[in-house]
């Protein structure tokens, strides 16, 4: 994370966490009365999105730290809970929805961890299995070199038996977590893609082999793993390339360490198209055959999605027939074609994943604890 400008909310200027951040980045923080001052400075840049990746605003989360994944209309959602630690990302993927989701996008890191701890305590006491992740509005591990937040969460989750934390990343910053006493309550998770897509569309991320080596090292320290082929970019030759990526995955990692693997085809809000065209003039991700999805997002023509899903599922099952595989934001027709069943036939997607987490992570799993 290469920070050029550091801002802090005036109400947090004298917090110890603020002082620690300033020391880590070797710069003083400019105190602002409102987030709008930061947004205005970033918006004035010729490329606000690029500048926002180098501007860090230390502030508080004024809403809930734990919230349900927003999902999308008409498609199956997994019942995931977001642990909202901050926003935006220092890497630069052409398809990243955060470019259009935040206006303007700015790196924000929340410092009011006492509130986060209180919310976690309530969740742990609920008696139900919950799956949480910090990788919805940011990459889980870009913060790790200077905050140590993920390390603290690994220790915190290790002390209970009902919830799992998923840390999703495209980095190799998992190294700092390897020696922690995790008790398999944290799933280290990597977004994967083909070498071609990573090289062309995922600027500043770790290479495929580097991600898989990091996963193998984590497995060697007893961590459960997850992988997400999302977004799948459909074009000529992609089927072979994704199957090759699956082969490389299982050449690096024993399937017994894998909790789940998700598949999701590229989809995006219509307003992202202009952003991609402006910022990534050589990108080819918009050249596909897209239609308006039921949720208002642009999606590949459904038969194309189903065909590619089926090929990747077959490749996964050839190596790991026991691993839980699921589709992200797809309907029953896509599920049946790709996987041979619908979520309802297995008790619902949320239950499928709760059971996978219970089985692979050693959670207590009385029937009434499965959500």
Q: Would you give an account of this structure?
A:
It is built from 14 helices and 18 strands. The protein folds into two domains: 1-59, no CATH class; 64-102 and 113-369, pyruvate-formate lyase- activating enzyme (Alpha-Beta Horseshoe), CATH 3.80.30.30. 37% of the residues lie in helices and 20% in strands. Strand 1, helix 1 and strand 2 form a beta-alpha-beta unit. The chain is globular. It has an eight-stranded mixed β-sheet with strand order 4-5-9-10-11-13-14-18. A five-stranded mixed β-sheet has the order 2-1-3-8-6, with helices on one face. The chain has 371 residues and is α/β, with parallel strands linked by helices. The two termini are 37 Å apart.
The overall number of domains is 2
Class by SSE composition = alpha/beta
Average pLDDT, rounded to a whole number, is 93
Any idea what the shape is?
globular
Based on the structure given, which CATH architecture of the largest domain is correct? Alpha-Beta Horseshoe
Count of distinct strands: 18
Q: What is the CATH topology descriptor of the largest domain? A: pyruvate-formate lyase- activating enzyme
Question: Between the first and last Cα atoms, what is the distance in angstroms?
Answer: 37 Å
SSE map:
Elements: E1 5-9, H1 16-25, E2 30-32, H2 35-43, H3 48-52, E3 55-59, E4 66-68, E5 81-83, E6 86-87, E7 92-93, H4 98-101, E8 107-110, H5 113-124, E9 130-133, H6 144-147, H7 149-158, E10 163-169, E11 186-192, H8 195-201, E12 202-203, H9 208-220, E13 225-232, H10 238-252, E14 258-265, E15 267-268, H11 272-279, E16 290-292, E17 298-300, H12 302-319, E18 324-327, H13 332-339, H14 349-361
Parallel strand pairs: 1-2, 1-3, 3-8, 5-9, 9-10, 10-11, 11-13, 13-14, 14-18
Antiparallel strand pairs: 4-5, 6-8, 7-12, 15-17, 16-17
